[in-house]
Automatic annotation (TrEMBL):
Record organism: Prosthecochloris ethylica
UniProt name for this protein: DNA polymerase III subunit delta
TM region(s), chain numbering: none
Keywords on record: Nucleotidyltransferase, Transferase
UniProt keyword annotation of Nucleotidyltransferase present: yes
The keyword Chaperone is annotated on this UniProt entry: no
UniProt cross-references to Pfam families, sorted A to Z: DNA_pol3_delta2 (PF13177)
Molecular-function GO term, any one: DNA-directed DNA polymerase activity
The protein's Enzyme Commission number: 2.7.7.7
């Protein structure tokens, strides 16, 4: 049942299982594919299979999920499974043992632990420390040292390197040396959504396994199988707002099960509220206040999520306008607002609206100033929706 926990990727899973059965696993893999597609969960599942003490079903090559090794891997505590991701350099500085730990360091440690906790809760989450300069040379030196020891319980020592495109140059060169003469007991799994930014010499030493975005039908089926309490409508909302990103799918599922409004749905409501403000006459001051609040208090990713929700909403409105009987909405719970919008804005130019929204998302991803970008967006949006300058 272990591989079944992972959403989608039947082909990749069977390639790895078969390689393991035939004892032909490569010493280094590079898992590539879009962010949020679940590459790392497959890496961890392979680690579990290799370390599990009681593979439950040898024909299916499934880790039991309950033995000590399986549990330690889930808790990120297995000595033979190392997980490397970009951290702040502060965490790697040599500390004088005589000195008491300073505040900055303990704060950085707390941030690191928090990311690992989040990863344990949501295996699709990709941890990244905001102040990190990438995967640093010291991290690979440490890895080098660990790789030189034999694994504690026999078998393989597994290094999962997350966001391998962020290896800084000297770290990448150190890793390359290891890949050139890999110790027999070591398995490297590099994971990257931007493999083009990895040194070609590193890439060529790894067996590349490509992952694609998981199909909507697979996500829906998985939710249905694992959380039968979530009804069809909620399931469809989760699938449409996550846009194939499994980290968000799992977050939304957790929220639902906890009886809370999923974060994405809350952001969508806020986006629709903003749209109302923008389109209301004489509410300019209020609109500006809301934009300022968003720029200040929401993360860039949250603003992008909001704009993506608007994009899906506009798509629904446009389809409904072309075909009033259209029922396969992205947001099946928003039928009434969609119908009202069609009636209230007959002059809307949805091609222009979509393109302005897409451009705004791109600009925000490229670090544009949120307040300026959102203000410009609001003006353009109003013009294209109402046809009034
Ligand atoms: Zn096990």
């Amino acid at each position: 049942m272990s591989w079944d926990r992972i959403i989608g990727h039947a082909l990749q899973k069977s390639i790895l299982r078969n390689a393991h059965t035939a004892d032909r696993l490569s010493h280094a893999y590079l898992f590539t594919g879009p962010a949020g597609s679940g590459k790392e969960t497959v890496a961890f599942e392979l680690a579990r299979l290799l370390k599990c003490r009681e593979v439950s079903d040898s024909a299916r090559q499934d880790a039991c999920g309950t033995c000590e090794n399986c549990r330690r891997i889930d808790d990120m505590l297995h000595p033979d499974v190392e997980y490397i991701f970009p951290v702040e350099s502060l965490l790697l500085e040599r500390i004088d043992p005589g000195k008491t730990e300073n505040k900055r360091l303990s704060e950085a440690r707390a941030r690191y632990d928090e990311l690992l906790e989040r990863k344990k809760k949501n295996p699709y989450f990709t941890p990244f420390m905001e102040r990190s300069m990438g995967i640093l040379s010291e991290q690979i030196s440490e890895l080098q040292q660990k790789a030189s020891f034999m694994p504690s319980g026999g078998g393989k020592k597994i290094f999962i390197i997350s966001q391998a495109e962020k290896l800084n140059p000297s770290a990448a060169n150190k890793l390359l040396k290891l890949l050139e003469e890999p110790p027999a007991h070591v398995l490297f799994i590099l994971v990257s959504s931007r493999p083009e930014n990895i040194l070609p010499t590193i890439r060529s030493r790894c067996q590349v396994l490509k992952f694609s975005r998981v199909a909507t039908a697979d996500i829906e089926r998985w939710i249905q199988d694992t959380c039968p309490d979530i009804d069809e409508q909620a399931r469809r909302i989760i699938v449409s707002t996550s846009r194939g990103n499994l980290e968000r799918v799992l977050d939304a599922v957790h929220h639902r099960l906890d009886g809370e409004e999923p974060a994405d749905i809350a952001l969508r409501s806020r986006a629709i509220q903003l749209l109302r403000l923008i389109l209301s006459p004489k509410r300019l001051q209020e609109t500006l206040g809301e934009l300022e609040d968003m720029s200040r208090n929401l993360s860039r990713q949250d603003i992008v999520t909001m704009l993506s929700a608007l994009l899906l909403f506009f798509q629904d409105v446009n389809r409904r306008r072309i075909d009033p009987s259209w029922s396969d909405l992205n947001n099946p719970d928003m039928e009434t607002p969609v119908t009202r919008f069609v009636a209230n804005f007959p002059a809307a130019d949805f091609m222009a609206v979509s393109s302005v929204t897409e451009q705004t998302i791109h600009a925000l991803r490229r670090n544009a100033n949120p307040m300026l970008t959102l203000s410009g967006f609001s003006i353009e949006l109003k013009r294209h929706l109402t046809g009034v300058r």
